[in-house]
């Protein structure tokens, strides 16, 4: 009997020890499980809130594409001085399917090369504004069919001939994004003008006349430019050698107050090009001083 009683007492002590160890472990497991449930619920709620509050945001431009663009100086002031006007669109979309679901606040500045930044209210025009979200509240462009995409037309005037400007548009709310382009203003030629628009993989050279019809000579000095042979003028370009090396050229007859756009494909999309006018000759060449 004595031995049996001792065994029972020993077993009871052993069980008590095990119980004392198991109880804290059980509590820890319960607390850990509870914390996991709370954390999982927080993550789920956070993801739900993000999904609810996140809105599509786009901010783009038809001109401020990071490239170099040339514009003519066609504005004549009362004192006889000439200047240029730049007009472009700021848009709340990348294409007809991707558009902003929120209003976009923006401001526009421009700076002359080696000069000071212009005020956003320059030339009496307030160049801060907002592209509203929703349907059809912007300055719609002619090729727009989606009433959820909005554009704002921005006009900068008084750009001096022969000078180069950096134009910057910045989205300030609800997110930030910066668009920029380099704008070169040509020296005015009273009878013939030419400008270059850079579209990344190709350029467009626009040539137009004033009050006199002209037969112009278009010369391509850039080895990396390939003329668009679907243009009946460019398919007849002749290859020759001049003082500056090999070139392509063609004669084109333009009427008075007429224009034509010549397209050239770029073998290197990173390069920039310019068009210069001398008498009745328009020469397209690579920009080498950037």
How are the secondary structure elements laid out?
Blueprint: H1 2-53, E1 60-61, E2 68-71, E3 75-76, E4 82-91, E5 104-112, E6 128-131, E7 151-160, E8 164-173, E9 177-185, E10 192-198, E11 202-209, E12 214-220, E13 225-227, E14 238-242, E15 245-254, E16 259-266, E17 273-278, E18 281-286
Parallel strand pairs: 2-9, 12-18
Antiparallel strand pairs: 1-4, 3-4, 4-7, 5-6, 5-8, 8-9, 10-11, 11-16, 12-15, 13-16, 14-15, 17-18
Explain what you see:
The chain is of the alpha+beta class and 290 residues long. It folds into 2 domains: 131 residues, Immunoglobulin-like (Sandwich); 102 residues, no CATH class. Helices cover 18% and strands 41% of the residues. A 5-stranded mixed β-sheet has the order 2-9-8-5-6, with no helix packed on it. A 5-stranded mixed β-sheet has the order 14-15-12-18-17, with no helix packed on it. β10 and β11 form a beta hairpin. The longest helix has 52 residues. The radius of gyration is 34 Å and the shape is elongated. About 10% of the residues have low confidence.
The unreliable regions are 45-53, 119-126, 136-146
Mean pLDDT: 77
Main sheet record: 5 strands, mixed
Element string (H = helix, E = strand): HEEEEEEEEEEEEEEEEEE
What Rg do the Cα atoms give? 34 Å
| Structural class assignment | alpha+beta
Helices, by number, come to: 1
Oligomer state equals single chain
The domain count comes to 2
Global geometry: elongated
Fraction in beta strands: 35-45%
Instruction: Give, in spatial order, the strands making up the sheet with the most strands.
Output: 2-9-8-5-6
The percentage helix is: 10-25%
